[in-house]
């Protein structure tokens, strides 16, 4: 026995090896390669392709899927010869298989497997980093489920990797928050993908980050109250932000005050309403500031007259005598604080009239028709009672003062001569100390001797 | 006894560690490690390499005149260690499916291991030095009939063991080539 030769190189070993090879080759031929079969083919019936509904129906025709060693084909080529629709998908970069082939999948076997028994899975995605964003739905918000475990493909693709039922979203999210999900799907339809792209869970959605912040009473309003029948993101974004879009039916003013609710009302509540009246043409001043709106705006705001008399007619103590332009005399602060420029009237106030109280002339508040003659106010004084009847006072008097009157008529000849001219410079009271009906010279003269020149006094 | 069988203890401990790793993978994947998975491939390849080492290194050392590294008894212990651990890993590689050529290869693996145990028993019937050479001193003390019987059994065992081993490796290589062809090249 040659102990230096390896046992595997002994004639017996070589003969054995040859016999085994022959047996294997024969088995290969007889079994149709099935000796390499690692397991039975999938028998789940699918769409009929070429009359076959499952791989199991291929039987032992290994060549249907496995190319010959010398062939330039590989399995993927043979896969796609039967699965022509997948070939078409691969050519479409928007389809699932198109996305996969642009991503990490290099061939069918990257995801698909076989020989795992009649009920074995044909798809294994564990080794594939699928670019899910390319489908229009990011997995950014679905990395970890509510139980803290990573999502798997089958969590969402229950019926198969290439199909998706949006009911899966709803079922899962109902388990997370039943009330919200039921309301949300009722308000916005169960078509989740119409709005949601998976980028965000929207768990911390803040409406106040949008242009229309939710304040006051708006914070407690159901989404659908404003977003009624919104079904897409665009629908949501196109929601009108004007008050009247939602509150037209709430308008207690029945449209009388226009549609700019925000001018008076705030989201904190319809009441109290506040309006900056100074934005209007009619500014509120004085006592108008504290007047209730309804005092002026009776059932209407627009078109409310701005003239005083429209509101204050009943307050007119002049009974219309001075017309309707109250503001000429009065101001909004106080009725009593009236000012009138009498120079605008026909009877100008001059002299002592300037400081006379209104009521001295305008008795009983009557202004219109006040007589403008002196005698209407000024009684004939006892000094010359009855002497100048029919004459106007201003022929002698001025408005400056009663005294200092200048008698411009011919003086009755009391002296019987023109000597009276010598009395030029004397005042009426110098001679008429009591009244004009009587006169005395003794005020100046000691006697009635006209020759007694003296210094005003007579020598009589 | 334990010192003389330490390769068996080491092999047993190694198998325990391999079982632990197997259980760990099973726990995390919740499924029996498939032969085509990373773990299945790793234990299959390592197991096969150990089996290859079992069949080649000891025989080469036994026949080599130049590379006389280590004692023959150590190589025999290594041969036994790898001859147990390697097939055990290959057994786990099967994912407990024994159909087709892979099943036949596994069967042959089991047979060769069983044969190895018998061979070791027969081998130890003949007194040897630590280099595996028959100890003439001790042999002289044996009864001639018993010695002849032991030598005859060992020869018979070789006659059976070697073809089984050859058949196993031919089948194993066919299995490997088939896996490369169908799985790696995706033909």
Q: Could you please describe the fold and organization of this structure?
A:
The complex is a heterodimer of chains A (460) and B (187). Chain A is 23% helix and 0% strand. By secondary structure, chain A is mainly alpha-helical. The longest helix of chain A is centred in the first third of the chain and has 21 residues. With 187 residues, chain B is mainly alpha-helical. The mean pLDDT of chain B is 85. At the A-B interface, helix 1 of A face helix 2, helix 4 and helix 6 of B.
List keywords for this structure.
heterodimer, A: about 450 residues, mainly alpha, about 25% helix, disordered C terminus, B: about 190 residues, 6 helices
Q: β content of chain B, as a range?
A: under 5%
Biggest sheet descriptor of chain B: none
Number of strands of chain A: 0
Number of helices of chain A: 15
The quaternary structure here is heterodimer
Unreliably modeled segments of chain A: 417-421, 452-460
Biggest sheet layout of chain A: none
Q: What structural class do the secondary elements of chain A suggest?
A: mainly alpha
Largest interface summary: A-B, 34 and 32 residues
Which structural class should the secondary elements of chain B be placed in?
A: mainly alpha
Shape summary of chain B: elongated
* Total count of helical runs of at least 4 residues of chain B: 6
Average pLDDT figure of chain A: 82
Radius of gyration of chain A: 59 Å
């Amino acid at each position: 026995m040659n102990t230096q030769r390896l046992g595997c190189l002994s004639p017996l070993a070589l003969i054995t090896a040859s016999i085994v090879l022959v047996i294997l080759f024969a088995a290969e031929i007889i079994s149709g390669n099935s000796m390499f079969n690692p397991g039975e083919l999938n028998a789940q019936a699918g769409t009929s392709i070429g009359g076959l509904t499952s791989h199991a129906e291929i039987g032992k025709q290994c060549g249907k899927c496995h190319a010959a060693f010398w062939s330039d084909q590989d399995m993927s080529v043979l896969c796609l010869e039967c699965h022509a629709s997948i070939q078409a998908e691969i050519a479409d970069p928007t389809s699932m298989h198109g996305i996969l082939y642009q991503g990490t999948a290099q061939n069918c076997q990257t995801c698909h497997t076989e020989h795992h028994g009649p009920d074995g899975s044909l798809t294994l995605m564990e080794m594939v980093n699928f670019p899910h964003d390319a489908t229009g739905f990011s997995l950014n918000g679905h990395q970890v489920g509510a139980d803290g475990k990573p999502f798997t493909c089958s969590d969402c693709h229950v019926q198969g990797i290439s199909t998706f039922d949006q009911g899966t979203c709803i079922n899962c999210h109902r388990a997370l928050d039943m009330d919200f999900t039921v309301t949300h799907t009722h308000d916005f339809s169960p078509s989740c993908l119409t709005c949601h792209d998976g980028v965000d869970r929207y768990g911390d959605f803040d409406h106040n980050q949008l242009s229309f912040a939710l304040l006051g009473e708006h914070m407690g309003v159901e989404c659908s109250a404003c977003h009624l029948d919104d079904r897409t993101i665009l629908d949501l974004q196109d929601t009108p932000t004007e008050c009247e879009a939602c509150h037209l039916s709430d308008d207690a003013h029945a449209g009388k005050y226009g549609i700019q609710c925000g001018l008076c009302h705030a989201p904190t509540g319809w009441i109290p309403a506040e309006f900056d009246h100074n934005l209007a043409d009619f500014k509120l001043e004085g006592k108008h500031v504290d007047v209730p709106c309804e005092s002026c705006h009776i059932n209407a705001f627009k078109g409310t007259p701005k003239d005083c008399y429209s509101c204050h007619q009943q307050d007119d103590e002049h009974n219309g005598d001075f017309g309707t332009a109250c503001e000429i005399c009065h101001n909004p602060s106080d009725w009593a604080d009236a000012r009138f420029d009498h120079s605008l009237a026909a009877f100008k106030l001059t002299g002592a009239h300037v400081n006379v109280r209104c009521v001295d002339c305008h008795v009983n508040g009557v202004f219109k028709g006040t007589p403008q003659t002196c005698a209407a106010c000024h009684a004939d004084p006892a000094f010359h009672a009855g002497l100048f009847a029919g004459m106007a006072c201003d022929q002698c008097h001025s408005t400056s003062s009663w005294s200092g009157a200048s008698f411009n008529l011919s003086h009755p000849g009391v002296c019987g001569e023109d000597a009276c001219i010598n009395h030029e410079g004397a005042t009426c009271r110098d001679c008429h100390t009591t009244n004009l009906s009587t006169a005395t010279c003794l005020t100046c003269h000691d006697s009635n001797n006209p020759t007694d020149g003296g210094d005003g006094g007579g020598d009589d | 006894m334990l010192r003389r069988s330490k390769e068996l203890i080491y092999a047993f401990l190694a198998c325990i560690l391999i079982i632990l790793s197997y259980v760990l993978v099973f726990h995390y994947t919740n499924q029996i490690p498939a032969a085509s998975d990373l773990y299945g491939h790793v234990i299959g390849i390592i197991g096969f390499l150990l089996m290859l080492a079992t069949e080649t290194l000891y025989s080469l050392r036994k026949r080599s005149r130049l590379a006389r590294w280590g004692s023959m008894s150590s190589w025999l212990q290594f041969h036994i260690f790898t001859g147990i651990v390697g097939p055990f890993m290959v057994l786990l590689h099967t994912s407990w499916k024994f159909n087709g050529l892979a099943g036949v290869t596994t069967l042959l693996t089991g047979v060769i291991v069983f044969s190895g145990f018998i061979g070791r028993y027969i081998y130890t019937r003949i007194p040897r030095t630590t280099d595996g050479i028959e100890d003439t001193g001790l042999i002289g003390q044996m009864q001639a009939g018993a010695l002849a019987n032991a030598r005859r059994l060992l020869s018979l065992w070789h006659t059976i063991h070697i073809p089984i081993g050859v058949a196993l490796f031919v089948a194993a290589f066919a299995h490997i080539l088939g896996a490369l062809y169908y799985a790696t090249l995706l033909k």
